Amino acid sequence: MSTATHADQSPRSEGLSPGVSRLWRRELAHLPGPRARVAYLSIAVLTTILFYYQYYLISGVSEQVLQSTGMSFRFFVNINVVSALASALTSLAAGVCDRYGRANVVTVGVLLCALVCVLGFPVAESAWAVGVCYTLLGAFEGTVLVATAALVRDFSPQVGRATAMGFWTVGPVAGSLVTSAVVSNTADDIENWQDQYLIAGLAGLGVFVVALLFLRELAPALRDQVMVSERDRALVEARARGLDVDAALRRPFRQMLRLDIVGSAVAISLFLFIYFVAVGFFPIFFQTVFGFSTSQANALGNWMWGAQTAALILIGLFSDRLGVRKPFMLVGAVGAIVSTLLLIDRTGQPDTSYYTFVAILVPLALSLGLAFAPWMAGFTETVERRNPALTATGLALWGLTIRVVVTLSTFLLPYVVTTVTPLVQDGPTVQAIVDGADPRLDARQNAVVKAVAADPEIVTRVQSLATRYEAELATAATLSPATQEALTARPDDLTVQATAVSELSGRTVDEVIRAVLLGEANAEATATARTLNPDTRAALAAAPGDPAARAEATEQIAAGLGIPAGQAPARLDALLAMPADDLAFLLTDGEAVLRAADDLTALSEVPEADLAFLDEYGTPLQDPVVQGVLRYLEASGPEVAKAVDDSPGQWQTYFWIAVAGEVVFIPMIFLMAGAWRPRTARRVAAEHRAAVDAAIAQIAAAPPTPTAVPTVLAPAVRVPAAQAPVVQEPPVQEPPADEPSAAEPSGDPPPAAPPPRAER
Known about the structure:
Blueprint: E1 27-28, H1 34-60, H2 62-69, H3 73-93, H4 97-100, H5 103-120, H6 127-155, H7 161-186, H8 194-214, E2 217-218, H9 220-223, H10 233-240, H11 245-248, H12 252-256, H13 259-271, H14 273-290, H15 294-322, H16 326-347, H17 354-386, H18 391-416, H19 420-435, H20 443-454, H21 457-468, H22 470-478, H23 481-489, H24 494-505, H25 509-521, H26 523-529, H27 534-542, H28 547-561, H29 568-576, H30 580-604, H31 608-621, H32 624-668, H33 678-701
Pfam families: MFS_1
Membrane topology: Multi-pass membrane protein
Region (Disordered): 724-760
């Protein structure tokens, strides 16, 4: 990259250099005017919104991802952990933006993210494939997080820093808003979750073109200084002509490892714990605990992220207008604590309505915005107090810290909340069964399964009745549906009865009628014949006088009628005295008809309520499909029911961790740069303006040499005293001891510049 002597690429000549080299030579040798800075900041915010939309999209479709890939919730959480870890590492590596610039890093990152969404996720059908794609997004996110924040700082003076940082922090929040809006409005129409990533990827390619053609950054000698207000512009450019950039970049992380920087980074990371939970897991939280649909769960995000977007912008404006950051942070922290406590309370009440959560999430979002936009401004000013040349390094430490906290908080989730996997993997199926809406079953089967799910005793009663009426049910099963229906409608109709007996016996209706009439005319002989077993009846029909057959018949008659053995021969003689045709019919077909008639009579004696119960549940419960569904319900139902009971308490425990983080944030506010009272901030600003005017007048009277650079602004670098040149400085009024100045010096003046170089 070029040093401060690089050719002018200011917005008026925006003329990037001729040829394709203009696509990567992006440094501006002069500070652009307000309109151009707004344009560059807008592109940075646009890329941030786009990227976080892509990164947070997995949360909006998390339930579909788990169901389609079969991954467990713990595996899903581990994917988030690995992605956050990759983001943490690349956030730290993004500190090289101080040496190699920001714009190209952002542009390439946007392109790579778009390619992952367009080419990776649409073909990711397994859990591991999803994990690889999401890890890549996390790695790119860490770099963009630091590079875009550094760009915003570079183009914004301190007096407008909170507004600019408010716009930048809109990026992650608006990314969440876009995710919620897109998913909530398309979830019912787009069945394949991969299509959501295709939409996000195509949008990313469009933003990449914008960034490639128009995104710019300041040359190192310009961005490595503190610019408090627009009045500093001429002085910053004058100082840039003699600034030793390489000296300012020596041992960057050692310079940034200070309590005010690291402590603030840790504090905001813990404070945003509830934000990370909301981004990553609120949709699945509302779906599993409160039964909201995918579109409803994401629509809650529309309220939350919309409110936070507005808060970030407006609070940034107010913070800049008043000139203070810390009071906003304090009020935001208290508001976040109260809102999170309300969320904990309602989590324990599963009947909480959709709009009750809206009333909780909107204040929570406003509180987060109230604290975060001023914090971002205050943090960059705290970094500048140490060394403005290492802004990206300070932001890299923050990026590393915040991603480490995200990694740990995400990793912790499945150990605190253990109920998500059964609720996601089995919950919807169990709920469909319980509601009688299982798509695998027809209406009657669903009705039976729903009833059994509500009253498991139905199965026990069916089994008991089926055992008691086994023979009668077998008789009913032999009848045709039409005959069963006719018997139910006209049980006393003789024609219907004859038809039923015909079906049961396998004889014609005429034979049924003959058997009935023959039995009525010869009641005693018929009773005698019915005591004989089939073999004896057949032997007597073939040879009525056979002594062996008569002997067998006599024994059977005595036993069957319960009469003395001496009376049995007379009963047998009376039976054999019947006409031969009638006897043969009675002993063969007639007996089958009479036996069928007995079975039909027994069936008619079963209580109607028992038959109706068995008709409603008995037959469907014998269906293998229904039995399979009920076995699944028996195996998974108790686990899902327990998860439903335990889930609210586990989420409440997790939210208490967020409250602890919000409390820890408060004391760390006091370590940061900046005043508490607007009056103090105005006095410090006035003193700074006077110092700038004096420095500009000194430059106009005697242009500085490389060894005598005006340093009335907060010195850009800390260097060893032995290396610092002796320069003449105009007197600067010091702020009161109890009120730190926004332009408070943090070390020695910058060293003299080395000989100019065309490239470094």
